[in-house]
Design brief:
This protein is of the alpha/beta class and about 400 residues long. Among the domains are: about 5-120 and about 155-220 and about 275-305; about 365-404, no CATH class. It has helices at about 15-25, 25-30, 45-55, 60-65, 65-75, 95-105, 120-135, 140-150, 155-165, 165-175, 195-205, 225-240, 245-260, 275-295, 320-365, 370-380, 385-395; strands at about 5-10, 35, 80-85, 110-120, 185, 295-300. The protein has a 6-stranded parallel beta sheet, with helices on both faces. α8 (about 140-150) packs across α9.
Length: about 400
């Protein structure tokens, strides 16, 4: 059984994609130090989280069945430290969190720690709305802000947002049965600080200091500017009814949003509207006071949660500059044209290869030896003795197909 488990449960948009990419690509180095990152594919912990919480996710929940138990079993069999990380775990219920902790050995001698990476609401609120847009939603920014500020929190949008963002509640659900010294908060530094400061904080929280890890990211979740997000939202409104969810992710989320529009760094950035800042400041102050009272381990500075002051020039994504949206749309059209050309060339190449293969098969079939072998195989298959000879022949040849 693992002696120590570090369970990273979120929150979203706090460098989690980068952290998980580094952990996944450095599994061998971690293993040589006695640290297990149990994943045979980069999204293994995501599937486990879906399974634990029985979350519907565009059909992936069917693929996720049994993933959490399989992950927990790998952890229990490991002798040393194990790390698990996915940000959607933040929304687990108290019962689901309890099941997860128990399955990892809590109460049976394993020292389980919960790690929560946190970022100020000034950045989290626009980032969460943008993530909604990149997941096919057409909800306006203003509507989103209204829903999350309603005291009732009775909409799907508000329920999800506060499920993964309300820090005291997340810590109640995941940490109710753990001593405060086993709960660690990693704060995301403000913009403009040292580039590797967040990684240094993660490294301290996970005990990775001194390990020679490859820190070059291959996976990321880049952000969009205000006009680019407005464009994707318009695409959602126009195409959602006809565009299959299975096609949306590679074409809109990946090709357009992540690979194309995120490169337009000169656009106005998404920001919190200035008139929402007082409400955010009030919520944040109450969170900081509560976390300080509970005595959790904070890696970084808890006052990083205060966030930046209001922007002086606010770009409203619900009323964007049409010139900027048009420029983004041209880049999007160009990307789709290039992708269409690439797919067309691939189709032509595959058609040519298929035609050549058909010709080769026809030539082989015309050979007398082919027809003789075909007759022999049919004759042998008609009797049990012949089938036994064929089975022995295929075993010697190392073939499992039914072809001679």
């Amino acid at each position: 059984m693992a002696t120590r488990v570090l369970l990273h449960v979120g929150t979203p948009k706090t460098g989690t994609s980068y952290l998980q990419d580094v952990l996944f690509r450095n599994r061998r180095t971690l293993a040589s130090a006695g640290i297990l990152y149990p994943a045979d594919r980069f999204d293994a912990h995501f599937l486990a989280a879906l399974d634990l919480m029985r979350l519907p996710w565009g059909g992936l929940e069917a693929e996720a069945v049994g993933a959490w138990d399989a992950l927990a079993e790998k952890v229990r069999k490991h002798h040393g430290t194990a790390i698990i990380s996915h940000e959607i775990l933040a929304t687990a219920s108290r019962a689901q969190a309890g099941r997860a902790l128990k399955s990892l050995g809590h109460g049976d001698g394993t020292e389980v720690h919960v790690v929560l990476s946190v970022r100020d609401l000034v950045r989290q609120i626009p980032a969460e709305w943008q993530e909604n847009v990149k997941h096919r939603q057409a909800l306006s920014y203003g509507n989103f802000l209204d829903q999350i500020r309603k005291p009732e929190r009775d909409t799907r949008i508000a329920t999800w947002f506060w499920g993964v963002q309300e820090l005291p509640d997340i810590l109640n659900r995941w940490g109710h049965d753990l001593p405060p010294e086993r709960i660690h908060l990693v704060t995301v530094p403000p913009r403009g600080g040292p580039k590797n400061l967040l990684w240094k904080r993660f490294s301290v929280a996970f005990g990775l200091d001194g390990l020679d890890l490859d820190l070059e990211a291959e996976r990321a979740n880049p952000s969009l500017g205000a006009p680019e997000t407005a464009l994707v939202r318009r695409i959602n409104r126009a195409a959602n009814r006809e565009l299959n969810p299975g096609d949306y992710r590679p074409l809109v989320r990946e090709l357009l949003a992540h690979q194309t529009l995120s490169a337009r760094t000169g656009s106005p950035r998404l920001a919190l509207p200035p008139d929402v800042h007082p409400w955010v400041s009030e919520v944040t102050s109450s969170w900081i006071a509560e976390i300080e009272r509970r005595g959790y381990d904070v890696v970084g500075d808890l006052h990083d949660l205060v966030g930046a002051p209001p922007v002086t020039q606010y770009a409203d994504p619900d009323n964007p500059s049409e010139k900027q949206v048009s420029a983004a749309a041209l880049d999007a059209i160009k990307a789709l044209l290039l992708e269409s050309a690439r797919l067309r060339h691939n189709e032509e190449r595959l058609e040519h290869e298929l035609l050549e293969t058909q010709k080769a098969l026809e030539r082989a079939y015309l050979r007398p030896t082919y027809r003789w072998r075909e007759k022999l195989v049919r004759r042998l298959q008609s009797g049990s003795y012949g089938r036994g000879l064929l089975k022995a022949y295929r075993r010697v040849r190392g073939r499992s197909s039914r072809a001679a």
